[in-house]
Amino acid sequence: MSYKGFYKIKNLQKYKGNPTNVVYRSLWERKFMNFCDNNSNVIEWSSEEIVIPYVSPIDNKIHRYFVDFWVKLINKNKIIEEYLIEIKPMSKCIAPKNKKYINEWKINKAKWKSASNYAKEKNIKFKILTETHLNIN
Fold first, then answer.
1. Which residues contact 76 (CB under 8 A, 6 or more apart)?
2. Which of 16, 31, 72, 88 is catalytic?
3. Residue 130 phi/psi, 5° resolution?
4. Is 68 a catalytic residue?
5. Is there a catalytic annotation at residue 88?
6. Which is the catalytic residue, given 37, 68, 86, 111?
7. Residue 1 binned pLDDT confidence (cut-offs 50, 70, 90)
8. Residue ranges per domain, the chain?
9. pLDDT per position as a tens digit, 101-126
10. Separation between Cα atoms, residue 13 and residue 6, nearest integer Å
11. How far is CA 28 from CA 5, 62, 66, 106, in A?
């Protein structure tokens, strides 16, 4: 089974973006796509359709961050909420002990800070989902 591929959307009316180019880059992302596509509480969603500029702490240049997902849903209290969602292993959400991965960590922190600021401006929420949230062992 491939860890990367194209997701075939079943509920086209829910997808906001180009439904012929929905790429998952991990099995976790594919699992989340399936959740969005099939969960009746998800009203709309997209994958890598929202692009947020961020300044890389490595080269101090502006780069583009393609957020994994945007989701509009009805929560358990029947309130409509919007989220920007990043799917990451928990190991990538904490500072690495190995200096080999410190630049990746710094870049991720810069991306997430920009995404958080963008979300606040749009009155939506930014969340990082890990294997714990996705119920993956």
1. none
2. 88
3. -115, -175
4. yes
5. yes
6. 68
7. very low
8. 5-129
9. 999 999 999 999 999 999 999 999 99
10. 18
11. 12, 28, 17, 23
Separation CA 110–CA 80 (nearest Å): 28
29-54: burial string, b at 16+ Cβ within 10 Å, e else: bbebbeebbeeeebbbbbbbbbebeb
- Find out whether 46 and 67 touch, Cβ atoms under 8 Å: no
Q: What is the pLDDT of residues 18-57, one digit of tens each?
A: 999 999 999 999 999 999 999 999 999 999 999 999 999 9
Given a contact cutoff of 8 angstroms between Cβ atoms, the answer to whether 30 and 5 are in contact is yes
Q: Please work out, in degrees rounded to the nearest 5, the angle formed at the alpha carbon of residue 4 by the alpha carbons of 39 and 73.
A: 20
Q: Which one is catalytic: 14, 29, 48, 111?
A: 29
- The end-to-end CA distance of the chain, in Å, is 18
